[in-house]
Amino acid sequence: MALTRDRNTPQKSGELLVIPVEAGKVIYAGALVAVNAAGNAIPAEAAAGLKAAGRSEEYVDNSSGAAGAKAVTVRRGVFKFANSATDPVGQANLLGTCYILDDGTVAATDGTGTRSAAGKVLGIDPDGVWVEIR
Description:
It contains no helices and 12 strands. It is mainly β.
């Protein structure tokens, strides 16, 4: 319904998210984290249909737990991940999309539809790729 008076609308920064972890998964601090079709956090991997969530702020071991038995804190922002040796992100990819190869590595292409987007390339250094995850 449309407002008819002022409203004190709640706000949060969106920089930190707490996401339930998928059953049987271990997420390491500093890992690139993705969300699967069920809405649970997993270590990012080369697979279609994932959503990049951000960087894990902590180690979470849910290897023996059910989905959602544990949660992980994920930070959104700009992070440096390793560059793929076989499908490297280059200067031509600047401000374009890079793709998840694993929980610590990004690639230049979607691997013919087999990789999900990691985020926007903001810089390329000799030791990694700066990726914006929003």
